[in-house]
Amino acid sequence: MPVEPTGVETAGRLATTRARANRLCRTGAIGERMRSPESDDRELRRPAKTDYVTGAHIRTGGPVTEAIDRYLDLAIKTISNTIYGDANQKPWVPLVYDAAARETGRDWPSQAHSMIGVQRLQNVRQLCERAIQEGVPGDFIETGIWRGGACILMRAVLAAYGETGRNVWCCDSFEGLPLPDEASYPQDKDDQHHTYKELAVSLEMVQENFRKYDLLDDQVKWVKGFFEDTLDRIEAERFSVVRLDGDMYSSTMVALETLYPKLTPGGFLIVDDYGAIPQCKQAIEDYRGRNGIADEIHDIDWTGVWWRKMA
């Protein structure tokens, strides 16, 4: 049975905040007024200034911009559950709430909808916003979604900006990680990720998490199964933001080989485990070297990185 998150009341309030924010705009969607050519309010249409390496957000003023900020700030607090502060369940870390660990994604929350931490959630928000603001075409996708938090945030960004022409693709086995295929990927020899039952979250539980934010709709696409069996069947032609969180060499490499060719030039590639798992980093370096990719890699925190595809 799914564990009812302590922050369920907050998710409900988040949906209410979204509804109130939408009413600020005459068109009924926050982002429409920001992009409307009929609007004379240049302050509302001006893109927010952002430090995309640290994820810091610099507000530019105006009631619509402020509504977007408040909604997405609350989304991150709710997804990471820094509001209630649920305990860690990572086996080799004390089973208590540690605010510093939650900020940098160093724990496995017992109830929060994401384990990537506040800084990496801020990065997801900022790069999705940047794709919208700069008109980079393509959907958003994450491979390895756990309880769905980062994908929920991607969908929240689309809602905040009134974006109806993009989808969020949620890719996971929903059964945990696969056994290492040492014959095909010797780099994964002795990998133990498949032994952690905490990493297996059902599709139904993740969909229920989306529902609590009032964000479960046709713009959310579900891809169930191991990556080597599913990613090449995705119907989307292009992506503007690709986020990889597959932990293993094989999961990372399969996602890169399948999805990177679909990443629009000017789009963003995010890697969750680059600094934490040597096999993941090796897969990134092997793929970049083999394909002559020299785009600058930016740090997010102690493990997450991103780069912009320039060609």
Describe the secondary-structure layout.
Blueprint: H1 8-22, H2 30-35, H3 42-45, E1 49-50, E2 57-58, H4 63-80, H5 99-104, H6 117-133, E3 139-143, H7 149-160, E4 168-172, H8 203-212, E5 220-224, H9 227-230, E6 239-244, H10 249-259, E7 263-271, H11 278-290, E8 298-299, E9 305-308
Parallel strand pairs: 3-4, 3-6, 4-5, 6-7
Antiparallel strand pairs: 1-2, 7-9, 8-9
Characterise the protein shown here:
The protein is an alpha/beta fold and 311 residues long. It has one domain: Vaccinia Virus protein VP39 (Rossmann fold). The chain is built from 11 helices and 9 strands. The strands form 2 sheets. The chain has a 7-stranded mixed β-sheet with strand order 5-4-3-6-7-9-8, with helices on both faces. It has a two-stranded antiparallel sheet with strand order 1-2. Helix 4 runs antiparallel to helix 6 (117-133) and helix 6 (117-133) packs parallel to helix 7 (149-160). The longest helix is centred in the N-terminal third of the chain and has 18 residues, at 63-80. Residues 1-5 and 24-59 have low confidence and may be disordered.
